[in-house]
Design goal:
Elements (H helix, E strand, L loop, with lengths): L1 H8 L1 H23 L10 E5 L2 E4 H19 L6 H28 L5 H9 L5 H6 L10 H13 L4 H29 L4 H12 L23 H11 L16
Antiparallel strand pairs: 1-2
Helix pairs in contact: 3-4
């Protein structure tokens, strides 16, 4: 009990010592990593294929996504849970764009004006277009609301509606490009007729097999003689299989 009492008396000093040690540890780590957490190298939050993602670039994308969410759902504020989801979605989108963007560019994939029009005003609009222009009361897609939006956009002198639409249109194009890329992969993977036939036969053919087994235990050891020359001959033919690159000498004191 006396020891516990002394620890309680010195608790303040102990906390100071622990805090000081942690501070020295952090400062030492900063010194090793380049001196200051505010240096440009510390602003990198990720790297894909040798290309760095700057934290300011990421935060800018997040803010753009939040603004688009507010405009699309006509809200003034976004709660913490939704903000977290938007941040995660933005991060995933940036990674996917960096990975797939190069591949799409090499293939020369594009989205034509007619394809974009079909995604917005066609018989089967993009799901996000359906969601954005659905009747709040019935939840049904309203094609007339799409044209009403474009009519209002032409009359909007501030250009805010056009800016919102351009951001939305950019996302639609990316979705279409991704769809084209995945479709190329899907159609590039196929099974030949011979492979399909072999797979069917392997899964459905049945065979009756009759065999005779002769186990080692059925042969008495006394009937087999192994001479020293047999052992030497086997060793000479197979010693490479058991070659050890490293060895150890062990001594036991009894």
């Amino acid at each position: 009990m006396a020891v516990i009492g002394k620890i309680r008396e010195k608790s303040t000093l102990l906390l100071v010592m622990i805090g000081g040690a942690m501070l020295l540890f952090i400062l030492g780590d900063i010194a090793k990593s380049g001196g200051s957490v505010l240096r440009s190298g510390q602003s990198v939050v990720g790297e894909v294929g040798g290309e760095s993602i700057d934290v300011r670039q990421f935060e800018k994308k997040v803010q753009e996504s939040i603004d688009n969410y507010k405009n699309n759902y006509n809200v003034q504020t976004v709660d913490a849970e939704t903000t977290t989801k938007i941040r995660n979605q933005t991060w995933d989108q940036m990674i996917k764009e960096m990975v797939l963007g190069t591949q799409r560019d090499e293939l020369g994939l594009t989205v034509t004006g007619q394809e974009l029009t079909d995604m917005v005003k066609g018989t089967d609009p993009d799901p996000r277009v359906r969601q954005a222009f659905s009747d709040p009361k019935t939840g049904q897609f309203n094609p007339a609301a799409v044209q009403q939006f474009f009519d209002k956009m032409e009359q909007d002198e501030s250009g805010e509606m056009e800016q919102r639409w351009m951001a939305f249109e950019t996302d639609l194009k990316k979705t279409k490009l991704d769809s084209k890329y995945y479709e190329l992969i899907r159609k590039g993977m196929f099974i030949t007729d011979a492979e399909a036939e072999n797979d069917y036969e392997a899964a459905n053919n049945q065979y009756d097999i009759h065999y005779v087994a002769l186990t080692y235990l059925s042969v008495p050891d006394s009937t087999v003689e192994v001479s020293q020359s047999d052992l030497q001959d086997y060793y000479d033919k197979n010693k490479e299989k058991y070659k050890q690159e490293q060895s150890r000498d062990i001594e036991f004191d009894l």
